[in-house]
């Protein structure tokens, strides 16, 4: 009898503990942009908006360094291109952990919680490129963390896209890991379970809509209007249905109790007809309502931990997945909030706090000057400008798709000119370009002026390796 009591008490204590720790919203901080915002300014923005957790896609110590002493919990990232060497040799993993992890811990250091090994390494579009290396790399990193004596606090995880599981019937209860990687996934989830580490999954209702024109639009949001029935459970949004498909897949893999973190979730605002601010606001309002209710999903009641994707628009991201890919920010490229967003889930009309102390280049733009009759030249120059800048807003259904052809050329010229810091030569275009002081923006289509990037910020992003070396020396001296 007494023994039973002890167990019951421990169970209660654990449950309470879990609930108390998970109430904080996280966000992904990506930096694939031509004009990165000063990391000091970004850290202030994270604090001003109450973010308690941030996930990075790399581990450049300069960036992580700015998070030291802030109380913000950090997930470091290891890009896919580093998986191979980390998988081959445990000594590399040890060096990695020493240089990029343990050096930054300690009093007043960086509060590192997870090391994300790879980013969606099993995406079907990678055609198996990382299936041999990702898991060995993760094991090596965890072993190195253990050996450094920090393995209890810092866990190796692997952010995976929701495409690692599937359901033949589209019902959650038929959820299983994808056939081609099922054995591998079974091993990975067992490893995570044994290490007390969570399963990190990226879930994108927008992509359900984007990839399938028959997908019921209401189901991508949280306002009802469409439902699926799965045995005695009703799902009214694809997020919960998708999440519970994973719960079933975990059950089938023999790890029904593995905890789950949503590593990325969000909605883009340009580059496709369904990617706009109105839809993004609708999606986030619903998501925050679900999160605030602490109801969880039908199969996983309780709080859900999420990291929003992402912080800013990133104008140099690959658009292989689609033109929306550069428009995932809850803030614009310059740190301005895009739309009202109440992260507490109360549905109040609240603006996020924008970036403070961002300076802009002069208010001037590059446009098509002479309406040259050489249409071939205009077309060539337009495509050339687009190939070296960002024209995703000009594509079908996007915010600038309604411009007439000449204005479209102006948009392309300006994009290139701004990306190149308004250098005069960047507005030549074989004599077609002209710099103007009057803003050519229309109601829906914004011609931006870029932000100033100071030398230190430029250096820490451009020369990450050198800067990381310098910062390790500095940190080393401090310790
Ligand atoms: C630390 O991380 C950086 C950035 O990803 C990487 O370039 C570097 O090789 C890592 N250090 C070691 C010792 O692996
Ligand atoms: C999962 O958790 C439940 C309740 O806490 C427990 O009864 C069950 O044995 C666990 N299952 C496994 C496979 O650990």
Automatic annotation (TrEMBL):
Tagged with keyword Signal: yes
EC number: 3.2.1.39
GO molecular function: glucan endo-1,3-beta-D-glucosidase activity
Record-annotated X8 domain positions: 364-447
PROSITE patterns (alphabetical): GLYCOSYL_HYDROL_F17
Leading EC class: hydrolase
Keywords noted in UniProt: Disulfide bond, Glycosidase, Hydrolase, Signal
Coiled coil location: none
Signal peptide location: 1-20
UniProt-listed GO biological process terms: carbohydrate metabolic process
Domain of life, source organism: Eukaryota
Catalytic activity annotation: Hydrolysis of (1->3)-beta-D-glucosidic linkages in (1->3)-beta-D-glucans
Family statement drawn from the similarity comment of this UniProt entry: Belongs to the glycosyl hydrolase 17 family.
Protein name (database record): glucan endo-1,3-beta-D-glucosidase
Taxonomic source organism: Hibiscus syriacus (Rose of Sharon)
């Amino acid at each position: 009898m007494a023994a039973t009591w002890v167990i019951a008490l421990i169970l209660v204590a654990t449950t309470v503990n879990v609930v108390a720790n998970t109430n904080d919203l996280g966000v992904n901080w990506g930096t694939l942009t031509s004009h990165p915002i000063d990391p000091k300014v970004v850290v202030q923005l994270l604090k001003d908006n109450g973010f308690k957790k941030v996930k990075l896609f790399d581990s450049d110590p300069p960036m992580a360094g700015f998070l030291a002493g802030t109380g913000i919990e950090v997930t470091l990232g290891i890009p896919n291109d580093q998986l191979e060497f980390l998988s081959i040799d445990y000594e590399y993993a040890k060096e990695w952990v020493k240089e990029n992890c343990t050096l930054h811990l300690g009093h007043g250091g960086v509060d590192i919680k997870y090391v994300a090994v790879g980013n969606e390494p099993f995406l079907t579009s990678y055609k198996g490129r990382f299936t041999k290396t990702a898991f060995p790399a993760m094991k090596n990193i965890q072993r190195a963390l253990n050996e450094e004596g920090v393995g209890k606090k810092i866990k190796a995880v692997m952010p995976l896209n929701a495409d690692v599981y599937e359901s033949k019937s589209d019902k959650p209860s038929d959820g299983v890991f994808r056939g081609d990687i099922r054995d591998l996934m079974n091993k990975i989830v067992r490893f995570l379970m044994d290490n007390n580490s969570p399963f990190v999954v990226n879930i994108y209702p927008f992509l359900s809509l984007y990839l399938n024109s028959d997908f019921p639009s209401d189901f991508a949001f949280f306002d009802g209007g469409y439902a699926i029935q799965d045995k005695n459970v009703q799902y009214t949004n694809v997020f919960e249905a998708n999440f519970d498909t994973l719960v079933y897949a975990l059950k089938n893999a023999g790890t029904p109790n593995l905890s789950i973190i949503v590593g990325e979730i969000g909605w883009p605002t340009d580059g496709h007809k369904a990617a706009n601010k109105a839809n993004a606001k609708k999606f986030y309002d619903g998501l925050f309502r679900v999160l605030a209710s602490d109801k969880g999903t039908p199969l996983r009641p309780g709080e859900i931990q999420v990291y929003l994707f992402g912080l800013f628009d990133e104008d140099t991201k690959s658009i292989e997945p689609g033109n929306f890919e550069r428009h995932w920010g809850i803030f614009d490229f310059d740190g301005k909030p895009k739309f009202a967003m109440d992260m507490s889930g109360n549905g109040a009309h609240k603006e996020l706090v924008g970036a403070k102390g961002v300076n802009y280049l002069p208010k001037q733009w590059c446009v098509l000057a002479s309406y040259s009759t050489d249409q071939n030249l205009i077309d060539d120059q337009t495509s050339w400008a687009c190939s070296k800048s960002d024209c995703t807003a000009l594509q079908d259904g996007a915010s600038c798709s309604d411009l007439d052809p000449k204005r479209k050329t102006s948009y392309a010229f300006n994009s290139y000119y701004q990306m190149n810091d308004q250098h005069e030569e960047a507005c030549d275009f074989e004599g077609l370009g002209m710099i103007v002081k009057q803003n050519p923006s229309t109601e829906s289509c914004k011609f931006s002026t870029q932000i100033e990037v100071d030398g230190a910020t430029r250096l820490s992003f451009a020369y990450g390796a050198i800067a990381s070396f310098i910062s390790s020396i500095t940190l080393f001296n401090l310790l």
